[in-house]
Amino acid sequence: MTTPPSPEPVPELDLSLAALFAGWALTDEVTRRMAARGFTGLRFSHGFLVQRLVESEQPIAALAQALDITQQAVSKTVAELEGLGYVRRRPDPRDGRVRLVSLTGRGRAAVESAREERAAVVEALRERLGPRRVDAATRVLREVLEVHGAAAAVRARRVRPPA
Hints:
By secondary structure, the chain is mainly alpha-helical. The protein is built from seven helices and three strands, in the order ααβααββααα.
């Protein structure tokens, strides 16, 4: 009986790359799980817009300003999410030229599903790696956010795509 070859070791990575790639791997797993639950078509980049709709509907111009992207880019993303049933647009009753964007019931269910699946992925890591290690890694990454002034944006759901 032959022993299967060992997988190649992960290359040496500094903290920023290890955190980035680990985040991508976790996000991919959450996205896969959400698709299995019927929430298809969602991409990581959609989350930047969706996070701004959790509390209330927003005009496209305000979304563009908050994300530091063009109104055309926001409109394109909104059209994608609208086509998938996660958001809806409606005219602002005070100004018919303005379009307000809000989450639909399906969009809110997707947000809840993402929260549940992220928790499940972390719990699986806790079982495999041990809760102390996972909790310690989480604390370190939260502290990194504080040190670099990003924690307030996370708390206020104001994270922007990387420049």
